[in-house]
Amino acid sequence: MKPSRRRVGLAFQPASAHVLYQPLGVIGIIVPWNYPLYLAFGPLIGALAAGNRVMIKMSESTPVTSQLVKELLARVFPEDLVAVVLGEAEVGQAFSRLPFDHLLFTGATSIGKQVMRAAADNLVPVTLELGGKSPAIVSADVPLADAAERIAFGKTLNAGQTCVAPDYVLVPEARVEEFVAAYRAAVQRFYPGLEDNPDYTAIINERQLNRLRGYIADARAGARGWSRCFPATRDGAWPTAWCWTSPTR
To answer: What number of other Cβ atoms are within 10 A of residue 241's Cβ?
Structure first.
């Protein structure tokens, strides 16, 4: 990029000032499993456009996609410009300890802490995009059908396996039942059935599925009111299709 001129204060006249843009060097990218293509190629494009070299650690939870990414990039870039690393969690831990010029990580907060600690040993600056809880707030005057449809779309996209998928909804107490009915209708309109539905993806692995089953068990045991959007022909096979109301409503 061309140098960019900056103003110089009166006290420093007749000096001149410029910003010189330089590549950082070697960028490490740790890719999560929920959007492996987008979160590999997006940072890669930006890093290469700025003149950097890149090493990518793909998720062990998406082995087929990871292998495909490695093969495709190897056809285009030499390995000393773009390298793709595959392997289990211990490979990711070793990857985090490399002396990169910058390290990007997208994933769980608990793993992000480990990545940051490992990077700190080499004073590597990090960019962390971590998990959280995403509320949706429905005000008293909003059309409930519209709100429920938009929230249902965000929640069911990629079977809810999205970092910004709504985790809970804050609804005026008097409108809770109406919202639940509107949400259920929206989900059923999007996906008339979930069993063997090619338009609705699966949960990534058994560990994540069991985590979601645990949420369902908690809701059934403790929620003041709960309902599910579909009859379950295989109990727990589609856990993100379930919905329940707040125990504190």
So the answer is: 23
The pLDDT averaged over each successive group of 10 residues in the chain (249 residues) is: 89 92 96 96 97 97 95 97 96 97 95 96 96 90 94 92 91 92 92 78 84 82 66 48 33
What amino acid positions are annotated as catalytic residues?
Answer: 129, 163
Q: In terms of Cα–Cα distance, which of 169, 203, 201 is closest to 184?
A: 169
Q: Report yes or no: 139 and 176 within 8 Å, Cβ to Cβ.
A: no
**Residue for token digits 């403790």?**
222
Which CATH number fits the domain that encloses residue 187? 3.40.309.10
Of 201, 112, 197, residue with least CA distance to 161: 201
Name the pairing type of β-strands 242-244 and 226-228: antiparallel
94: tokens are 């070793």
Instruction: Say if residues 138 and 211 touch (Cβ distance below 8 Å).
Output: no
Give 18-24's long-range contacts (Cβ < 8 A, gap of 24+).
Answer: 21/50, 22/51, 23/50, 23/51, 23/52, 24/50, 24/52, 24/101, 24/102
**Are 124 and 145 contained in the same domain?**
no
Q: What is the CATH number of the domain that holds 74?
A: 3.40.605.10
Q: How far, CA to CA in Å, does 136 sit from each of 31, 38, 152, 154? A: 27, 25, 11, 10
242-244 and 102-107 as β-strands: parallel, antiparallel, unpaired?
unpaired
